[in-house]
Structures are given as structure tokens and as C-alpha cells.
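User: Predict structure, ligand FE2/S2 (inorganic) cluster.
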Amino acid sequence: MSSETSEVITSTEAGTEVIYHFLATSEELKRSGGQLTRWVGDHDILLYEHEGGLKAISNICRHFGGPVGYLKAKDGIFTCQWHNWQYSCKDGSCLTHPGLGLRPYAVKVTGGKIYVNLLS
Ligand code: FES
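Assistant: Predicted complex:
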């Protein structure tokens, strides 16, 4: 289900203005057990806590587009329920088919809200 939002923040990084789009609140992530998926514009994003930090990667499996984050990560690995391709929570790299990793998104947290850079 698509969830459009227009809330953005900007940040100057290496002399360039970068736009971050609202994804979820920290409270929502906490209530979801540290892992949730959400659409931001045309991007299906998997947001999760990993080793004390926050990460966001594409939720679209590189095989046939299954929802990578439908099941909770286990032992640092996401397993797509459609055909069991596996991805590392560390960086979205594909463990079963090297070179076919998931797109990462830069994350920024401010004021209890989590934002992602859709162009990162
Ligand atoms: S769609 Fe994910 S393993 Fe096939």
C-alpha cells in the first residue's frame, strides 16, 4: 500500500543540499519491533535497527520483486519468503546471489522522526 508524504528536511552535505523524506517516527519503528516497511513516493523501503544503528534498504527482492522485509530478520539476515534469497542486514548485499544486493538509502533522524534520502 502506498503512503505518500510530502514532509522533507534538507541537509548540506559536501556543499550540496540534500533532501530527506519523512519515512516514520522512531516510536512507530519501536512499536514495529525495530523493523518496518513503508512506501515513500515510488520507493518501497525496508527500515530496521541493526547493531545499534538505523538502516534503510529497498524492500524489493532482486529476484522477482518479493517483499524482503515481510518476515523479521533473523541472525542478521533477511530472507525473502518467495524463493528464499537472502540479504545481509549489514548492507543489503545478497548472500545467495552475490552482486545482486538491495539499494541502500541514507537515513537521518531528527526530533523523533526518521527520514531517508531517495537519491542516495
Ligand atoms: S522474489 Fe525474492 S526470492 Fe524470489
